[in-house]
Structure formats: structure tokens, C-alpha cells
Specification:
- By secondary structure, the protein is α/β, with parallel strands linked by helices.
- The chain has helices at residues 11-14, 30-36, 54-58, 66-77, 84-94, 122-140, 153-162, 181-188, 203-214, 232-235, 239-249, 266-276, 293-300, 324-330, 335-341, 349-363, 369-385, 404-411, 419-422, 438-448, and strands at residues 18-20, 23-28, 45-47, 100-103, 108-112, 144-149, 168-175, 194-200, 224-225, 255-261, 283-288, 342-346, 390-396, 432-435.
- The chain has a six-stranded mixed β-sheet, with helices on both faces.
- The protein is globular.
- The N and C termini lie far apart (43 Å).
- 53% of the residues are buried.
């Protein structure tokens, strides 16, 4: 079992409930938050207290197994809903993969998060959510319908994680023509309990449609929940790989900075949770593409969402990121306070392609466009600050094989697909095309369920 030396804090300090960002009086358990997905008034669930887990993080070592530290953190933070035994079942059922750190030799480490079933970082959240939901549903002998919107990797991770799960149906909305061909294959070739809806619109349309269904009174008869980054059950386990990187580097570097390629901002929010719970982090870098409304906010305090721009890093093409509401709540809507901990950066398509090419030439390694955005921002940070005794952990969010067209455009070469992706290319796509209206989704759900 776990190599971590357990410590004891007063029970009251470790109690954890969750409240809505829009109604502090709405208090729910983790299990309730998981199945509700979104609070009835449209808010997102966040912790109602901040436990001090600094002793836990201090006890981590480079030899602590990934699953062991995930089990321990789960049983500490979510102890009111998940026992140590349940945590072990959930984690060990969810993860037969882990992050991998690559030292690029310049103080920047790439943390590869694409070794799961869909070859993207969102496998960490989706597999935990599927496993925990399965645990809860088996205990209560009931069903659930997963309704989620995706700009790319979320949907494929959810589809893979929930495929053929008992008592669970899955409906995934994705923007037509705005996900990579391979991502679309991951969404549309599974069948059985996984249904793919191809929406004539943008990711923002998909996200709006999903949110409207969750707050629509005439849809309350459906046991709906969400599995994208608005769901707390997917957000919480994303904290695991920040913790893992910290455990690997804490004995070598005094300061650790995390650079996070950011679209809907769930990934960055999970790292911020680790920091609020006591994990030492010097600061975060929020790296975006042309959809740079958050970096602009961090400079001016003005948040100006807009229709999303289409870029090579398409999973980050989000003009109004949902999880930014959580970050504003955590930092009490104080952009200066947020800016002290989170530095904004944005990277153009031109610089994204240039970095993919340069990385391949210098290191003989492929990186996907989202990883390239983060790596450019990491290099800029190091060049501008020249920090001593500091490591920047730049999150690598997807296998380059998922973005063959963009990577080949940049390098003139095609990365080899992992076997789990290779087999998808031969499968036939099955999707249902719908209009980008709330009514269209409502009609589909009423007919299907």
C-alpha cells in the first residue's frame, strides 16, 4: 500500500462539502455534485473549505507510486463520500497508466499526460469519474445519463472511459468540422451506450446547449449528469498529475512552476486546488492560443468573452471558458490576486507550428499543437524571468498522433500512431447531426430516453 506517512488533523478540518459559485447556501456532498454536474441555478461546484494538506504533500517522494498517492489524496479530501477501501477500488480500476516526465534539458520538463486509453490528459479525469460513478451507482442500483460537450479531447476521453459501463448512457455533443479527424473517430465509432451528436455550430454552442438542458425544468425527469470539465468528479482527479510532478521534482528544485495549455480552464483549476490545499507551487502559467480572453483579464481586470476563434490547437478554441468562473470564485474575483499566482500567455498559430518544427529538429521528438503552445509559453517564462533553482513543468496534453495533419504540416513527417488510435482509422463513423439550438437537443433527448 501507500508509502506516505499518514498524519492526523482534526476531523472538522478535513470535512469537505461543496457549494455553488452562484449560491454559497447550496451545500452538497461530492456524490451529489458528481451526479448533479451543474448546480440548478447554473453555478459550478467548488470546495466550501480549504483543508491544510501540507504535511501530506511533504510526505511524497519520487518513489511514491502514482496510484498510492491518488488513493491517499482521494480518501483525505473526499472522506465523507469515499472510504479508503472505495478509493482504492476506484483508483486501481481507473488507472493502469500514469504521467511520464521528460527532461528537455533547459529547466523545462514536459509532463506527458497522454498514456491513457484515448491518448489525452483528460483520461485522468474521465477514468476516475467513470470509476467513481460506477462505484456509486452499484451501491444504489440506479442509472445515469452522461451529457457532455467537447471541443475535442474531452469527448474522446469520456467515450473511452464510459464505454460499455453498466447503468450508464453517454451523449456527447461536438462541433461539426471543428475536431480533428482522429478525435471524431474516437467519438463516433464505439456505439453501444455511447451516442455522438454532431452539432452544426461551435463548441460554445455545444456547451450552451448542455448547460440549458441541465437548468431546464421539463428535463428534470432524466437522470442527467455531465462528464466534461464542469463536473467536479472529472476536475478533482486532474489534481493527481500536478501532485505526481511535484513528488518527482521536489527534492531537486526549490521552486516549481506549472505551465498549462488552457481552453476551458478545468486543467489549470485542478492545479490551483492542489496549491490551495498546501502543495508548494511558485506560480502557474495559463497558456492559450488566440482565444486569449483570460490572459487579457489578468492584465486589465476586464473579462470580455467572445465567439471562439478556430486555431491549430482546436481543443483550446474556447471563447468563454466555463471553469474560469471557478477560478474567479477561488480568488474572490480579484484579478490582481489571481495575477500574482497565475501568469497569462498566449501563442499564435504561427509560433505553434514553428515550435512543433523546432522541437522535432532539435530533440527528434513530436509534440502536438497544444503541447507546443505550453512549451512556447514555458520558454518565454524562463527567458523573461531567468529564475534560479526553478523547474517549469509544461503539461503535454495529447499524443501528437491525434493531430497528424498539423504535426505533418509543421515537420514534414508523420508521427507514429499508438496502437489504440491506429485501429480507429478503419472503423466507420456513426453520428447524429443536429442544429445548434437548445430545442434540437431537447427533442433528441426526449425521443432517445
Amino acid at each position: 500500500m501507500c508509502n506516505i506517512i499518514l498524519y492526523h488533523l482534526p476531523a472538522k478540518e478535513l470535512e469537505m462539502k461543496f457549494i455553488s459559485t452562484r449560491d454559497k447556501n447550496r451545500v452538497v456532498s461530492f456524490k451529489e455534485a458528481v451526479f448533479q454536474g451543474l448546480s440548478p441555478e447554473g453555478g459550478l461546484f467548488v470546495p466550501n473549505s480549504v483543508p491544510n494538506l501540507s504535511t501530506f504533500y511533504a510526505g511524497l517522494t519520487p518513489k511514491t507510486p502514482f496510484n498510492d498517492m491518488a488513493i491517499e489524496l482521494t480518501s483525505l479530501v473526499l472522506k465523507d463520500d469515499i472510504s479508503k477501501e472505495s478509493a482504492a477500488r476506484i483508483i486501481n480500476r481507473a488507472y493502469n497508466f500514469k504521467p511520464e516526465l521528460v527532461d528537455t534539458g533547459n529547466g523545462i520538463f514536459i509532463e506527458e499526460l497522454f498514456h491513457g486509453p484515448s491518448s489525452a490528459f483528460k483520461d485522468f479525469g474521465a477514468c476516475f469519474l467513470a470509476s467513481s460513478m460506477e462505484e456509486f451507482l452499484q451501491q444504489e442500483n440506479r442509472r445515469a445519463i452522461i451529457l457532455t460537450a467537447t471541443s475535442g479531447d474531452t469527448g474522446s476521453a469520456v467515450a473511452q472511459a464510459f464505454f460499455d459501463k453498466k447503468n450508464i448512457d453517454v451523449v456527447i455533443l461536438y462541433p461539426s468540422g471543428r475536431v480533428s479527424p482522429l478525435q471524431e473517430k474516437q467519438l463516433t465509432t464505439l456505439g453501444k451506450n455511447v451516442r455522438a451528436l454532431e452539432v452544426k455550430g461551435s463548441f460554445d454552442d455545444c456547451q450552451r446547449m448542455v448547460k440549458q438542458i441541465f437548468t431546464s425544468p421539463d428535463m428534470k425527469y432524466l437522470p442527467l449528469t455531465s462528464a466534461n470539465s464542469i463536473n467536479l468528479g472529472r476536475l478533482f482527479p486532474q489534481s493527481f498529475y500536478y501532485m505526481y510532478a511535484y513528488s518527482q521534482l521536489k527534492e531537486r528544485y526549490k521552486n516549481i512552476v506549472f505551465c498549462v495549455p488552457s481552453g476551458n480552464f478545468g486543467n489549470l483549476t485542478a492545479g490551483v486546488l492542489d496549491w490551495t490545499w498546501g502543495m508548494p507551487v511558485k506560480e502557474f502559467i495559463a497558456a492559450t492560443n488566440r482565444n486569449n480572453e483570460v490572459p487579457m483579464y489578468l492584465e486589465s481586470g476586464k473579462y470580455e468573452p467572445h465567439p471562439s476563434f478556430k486555431t491549430y490547437s482546436n481543443a483550446m478554441d474556447v471563447g468563454d471558458p466555463s471553469n474560469f468562473e471557478r477560478l474567479r470564485f477561488i480568488f474572490k474575483d480579484d484579478y490582481k490576486k489571481m495575477g500574482k499566482m497565475i501568469k497569462g500567455a498566449w501563442v499564435s498559430d504561427e509560433d505553434t507550428l514553428k515550435e512543433i518544427s523546432q522541437f522535432y529538429e532539435e530533440k527528434n521528438m513530436f509534440i502536438d499543437p497544444h503541447t507546443a503552445v505550453g512549451y512556447v509559453a514555458s520558454k518565454r517564462y524562463m527567458e523573461a524571468n531567468k529564475p534560479e533553482d526553478t523547474a517549469v513543468v509544461s503539461l503535454s496534453t495529447a499524443h501528437p498522433g491525434k493531430f497528424l495533419e498539423v504535426v505533418e504540416k509543421a515537420t514534414g513527417a508523420r508521427p507514429k500512431l499508438p496502437q489504440n488510435l491506429e485501429r480507429l482509422l478503419k472503423l466507420e463513423k456513426h453520428s447524429t447531426v443536429i442544429e445548434n439550438t437548445d430545442a434540437a437537443l431537447k427533442d433528441y433527448l426526449k425521443a432517445a430516453f
